[in-house]
Amino acid sequence: MKTFKFQSFVLVLIAFVLGFSEFLIVGILDDLSHQFNVSVATVGYLVTAFAIVYAISTPFITILIGRFNLFWDLMVAMAVFTFGNILSFLAPNFLMLTVSRVVTAMVAGVSISLGLTFAGYVAPMAKRGWLLSWVFSGFSIASVVGVPLGTWISTQFGWRISFLTVIVISVLTMGLIFVSLPKDFKQKKSTISGQLALLGNHRIQIGMLLPMFNLAAIYVFYTYLRPIITNQLHFSVSMLTILLAVFGIANIIGNRASGRLSEGPGMKGMPFVYIGQFILMMLMPLVFNFSWPGALLLTLVIFTIPLINSPIQLFFLQIAEKDYPQSIVLASSLNSIFSNFGIALGSATGGVIVSNLSLDAVGPGGAVYAVVALGLVLWLNHLTSKGLSSRSTNL
Questions:
Q1: Same topology for domains 1-186 and 196-393, yes or no?
Q2: Alpha carbon distance 152, 158 (integer Å)
């Protein structure tokens, strides 16, 4: 059990350092803008570019490396991730910083996919949901602890030292991976087309859209969380930091609840989550007229964001292990890939709504995607209960 607990810590640490690096830019936007003499909006595009590269590169690289020893795949991916952050630390201009973020993004998705694959491999069946929820919590912890820490380091010692902190944690993580995780872990050998067979599964096709519309619903309003807090709810800038920390804690609790959900009703419990999301988002225009009730509503919605993580991850892994053992790593990557597509879709939708309507409309706008997610999970649960052939290839 001590070995399993240590391995669990290492896997959560992988998620933490990946999240720390990804989210760090948000906290040091102003410092980078000043350093490279570009607008804050231009620096903000680093976040968008990271998400797009992450989503597009992950499936291709995952398929290519899936034929090799997964331990060394993870070590190489983490080494490239560390190298990307070293490039960020040394970047002499904004172009090189952009290149460094592309390098980092290309392997970040692969690294977490491999981490989740190892989580499914080392955990006893009864502990799988528990460990997966903790690995996903690593990203939430990074947003609550890592980003404020990186921001403070940037303010006190300069933004380069923030990246140096990520590098140090990355190297430490690689050392812990080397001494803790099994070195003989391989998935069944297969051709590229054999691995892609997973994507022909009817339930996989529907299931991978769930993380996408889950986060699309959230990011319609979440992208504008700061102006919502300060302009709509009329909280001070000092309260903004406190509320963001509260929201981060709510997200961590949601991840833990996700593990419980996967051990209980699993995907059958998700329709109630999306019904709740829909109601809360439709209430936003009304409740946003009141500061504290509005903050409470936001906390509740943010709590629901990660509830899908463990149930859908287990769902993907169980299908892959049963019918597509050659595609386990690809199955592990689907959640993170389509979550990033959802972030892009939701933030773009939010931009259109804010530009043409107002901040009051972002809640109902997100509710539309929550309805789509509800329809998808009901459809998926229906197919699962009917025992639809896992080899179906057409929607």
A1: yes
A2: 9
Distance CA 338, CA 322 (A): 22
Topology given in CATH for the domain delimited by 196-393 = Growth Hormone; Chain: A; (1.20.1250)
Length of the chain as a residue count: 395
The structural domains of the chain, with segments of one domain joined by +, span 1-186, 196-393
User: What is the SS3 assignment for 68?
Assistant: coil
Q: Of 157, 150, 120, which Cα lies nearest the Cα of 17?
A: 150
- Contacts with 305 (C-beta within 8 Å, 6 or more apart), sequence order: 214, 215, 218, 251, 254
- Superfamily holding 1-186: MFS general substrate transporter like domains (1.20.1250.20)
Q: Does 394 have pLDDT greater than 60?
A: no
Arithmetic mean of pLDDT over the chain = 87
Read off the pLDDT band of 199 (50, 70, 90): confident
- Of residues 184 and 191, more confidence is placed in 184
Residue 84 has pLDDT above 50, yes or no: yes
Burial letters 357-381, b for 16+ CB under 10 A, else e: eebbbbbbbbbebbbbbbebbeebb
Burial class for 390, CB neighbours closer than 10 Å (0-12, 13-18, 19+): middle
Provide the token pair at 133.
Answer: 């929820």
Query: Over the stretch 22-46, which tens digit does the pLDDT of each residue have?
Result: 888 877 877 888 899 988 767 777 8
Tokens of 379: 């459809």
HSE of 122 in the Cβ direction (CA atoms, 13 Å)? 29
Say if CB 159 and CB 34 are below 8 A apart: no
d(CA 306, CA 145): 18
DSSP H helices, 324-361, are: 328-356
DSSP string, 246-259: HHHHHHHHHHHHHH
* SS3 state of residue 1: coil
